[in-house]
Request: fold
Amino acid sequence: MGMKTGYLPETVVYQGTTNVNEAKSLWHWRVGTLTALFIIDISCASTLYNTVHQWNPLHADRKGFFDSLFHFTHDSSDLLLFSILRMLSLSGLAYYGATLTWKEAEKTERAKDAKSLVPSHLKCPGNRKNESPQINGESKDGLAEPLLDRREGTKLSKGFEEWFSGSSKKDIVLFMVFLLCTCFQAFVGAKCVGFYFDSTHKMWGVRGEVWQGVLMGSQVAWILAESCYVHLVVDARRILSRALCITKRRKDKEQQNQNLLAKSARGLAQAEGTLRGDKGLKEEADVDQNRFLVRAISLAREELCLILCAFFCLAVSSASGLLLPRFQGSILDHAINNDKPKFKTEIQLLIIFTVITGLFEATRNLCFTVVGKRVLKTLQDRLFMGVIRQDIAYFDGTTSGELTSRLTNDVSSMAEPINWMLSSIVRNAIALVGAFVLCFSISWKLSMLAFTTMAPIMHITAVYSRWSRELNRKRYALLAEANSAASEALGNVRTVRALSTEEVEIDRFKSKTQAAMQKGVRDAFAYAGAVAVNDWLDLGASVLILWYGGSLVMQGRLSAGKLITFELYWNQIQSAYQSIMSVLMSLTRAAGAAQRVLSLVDALPDIDPSSGTVVSILEGDIKLEDVQFHYQMRPQHPVLTGVSLHVGQGQVCALVGRSGGGKSTVVHLLMRFYDPTEGRILLDGWDLKHLNVKSVHKNMGLVAQDTQMFACSIEENITYGLPKYTVEDMEEAARYANAHDFIMRFPDGYATRVGERGVRLSGGQRQRIAIARMLLRRPRVLLLDEATSSLDTESEALVQQALDRLISEGGRTVVLVAHRLSTVRNADMIAVMEKGSVVEQGKHKELVELNGVYQTLVRRQLNKVKTTVVSGSDSDDNSDSVDTSDSIE
Ligand SMILES: Nc1ncnc2c1ncn2[C@@H]1O[C@H](COP(=O)(O)OP(=O)(O)OP(=O)(O)O)[C@@H](O)[C@H]1O
Reply:
């Protein structure tokens, strides 16, 4: 089951419950549950009230403290009273939370309609044009209060803000509700086991016991219903904290609000580390432990044979394991009764079943561990596939450190619980249910009493899980930031050393790990607290069992062996429950990591490299029609504002202009790293958007400004991505790029390893290898983005020679971001770019005669050359990309 990943408006990241209808349906569902519970509760209590019963007559003569406390007569009016009290308090709180939820969610909904105020590229979904809400001031109905909500620093309506101000207040209320339910649970439990039904009224006796059972069962449900209240509050907050909303109407503040809204929207649109495609931000669906469980199971499905084998072993070991306490109890009974033959048989059976259990347990463990390891591998592969296919826009908004963290930390955190979850959950679930049934078969009253502690334990675990999930999500994000800081520092280690900023980098790294550690410690404290309270409750249950079970033994209504069997089953239930809980808790912890992993595994890129029409050979006719573009990380800064350009087949087009004019961006769009925001790019008359990117790239060669090398040999770098090649071809390409000679001077020749990102080569050498790589592919369209920028004058001349040769061969369309005037001068067409558009276009001579930007550009550079020659120093102004190393005259 995959998570849906849909587009979001650029302004808002919605997650989970986001609209009023959903909030209302949640509310209805939960209120329905509460009402049903209340009806069961009241009917049981009133039925018991009318049933002939009394406090256990065996205790009638006692006059201790507890006896006076629990000195019930025939009626159980106290039960009724408690039911009503509890129902009123819990429902009242839930209702209050829900009412606020509605109000605020409706405000949010209305606020979304205010999108007409937002600039078109920052619009929210939904539209009701007849309202013009504002951020500050009063609404036309005078009801709404300032309501501009961001992830942090939420500014909500007064009542709601007050309600949520100080989470301690909320926690106290929740704790009180929990306490109320728990106390009542204990009270009803103690009272019910003490009921004695008049045996002369047989019908009443049976019914009474049934109602008694249902009433005690409903207690468990009641305590869990407390979570209803928590959910209402949490959902309300989620709705509010995830919506960007405005609610007011006041004309004189419209402009201010627009700016504020656009600013907030930009904040979200440019947020780093968020999932984005070429078309904008994407929704990362929440992964809670249930979803995680489902995904884990679907991942493990591929190992069906091993899993089936493991389940078979599990079934055998669980069944024989469940019988062990029975043997242990009856061995004790036979020992007490001095029944030697039966004693011997039972001992033999115990040994046989112990051996069987151990054997199948070990096999089960082995199978599940192997499955776990395979799942980890599948997950790692899928994540890497998911990451590498993302749009370039996604990589603009993230760091390699963050991605490495996902590939390492997050994947192993996610896979770790899967490892033992498979083996643990099912085994313990079987043990839990089996022991539960067997406990009831021994004594239902004893079971009822013992289970009164179950609901509080479940509640505490659930509260901790909720809290811990959020905390761990933040912890993993901090770890990713630490990773990012480390890889950035290590990637730029020369700059760090040159500027002696080691301490700065260490502090940066430490601050992240420290924050992550603090969150981990908080989690450890909370975990220890939850475990401690659960252990106490557990011990309390054991005391109850021994107290009530012991009195049953003393009355002769239960054998000592059965009491021991019960105790053993109870321990089994406890340990099975705790194991399940610790798996669920680790699932909770891992859910944060899972969200980060699965969001990427599921996210499909907007520009899918393998879809679209496949072209085998491109002619090389390029047309840009009114192309507009802005980068997502800077949506307010249009880079191309309407570029129209036609480069015919076999033509050479030089893009020149000031730095930042958008020349490289044109090259990026031609490579389809991004799609234009408006306008079209046509290749041989085909809209580039409809062509298969992979097939287009086979026909295109790009040499970019920043040469990218892999940490392998020179040969592997030159032939990168080619399934077949001959050494002759490779050497020819290297010769063409004037790289062969320097390569052969290395002792290992083409086998020389270049180090990470080619650090063992000079910039010029790297660039020549990149050119050789491109030449070997013999592309129909060459894109040269300042391909010789890192070369010294001598090697630049050599490389330029190679490029000129290639260009002069003809038949290839070349788009080059100009670096040398000689190349520019010879180009079939020169396009001068300024502020995102082509301001002049033509041949060198025509442009010089035009006396416009091009001429100014050239003239300024000529002056610069003269100044440099006169002063004998280099100019530090590199802002123009037409080099002056050649004279144009
Ligand atoms: N990935 C990116 N995200 C956001 N903005 C970007 C990105 N890449 C480039 N820009 C911005 O886009 C504008 C155009 O950049 P571009 O690299 O196309 O200019 P250029 O004309 O090639 O400059 P130069 O001659 O210096 O290489 C610049 O203002 C730059 O800051």
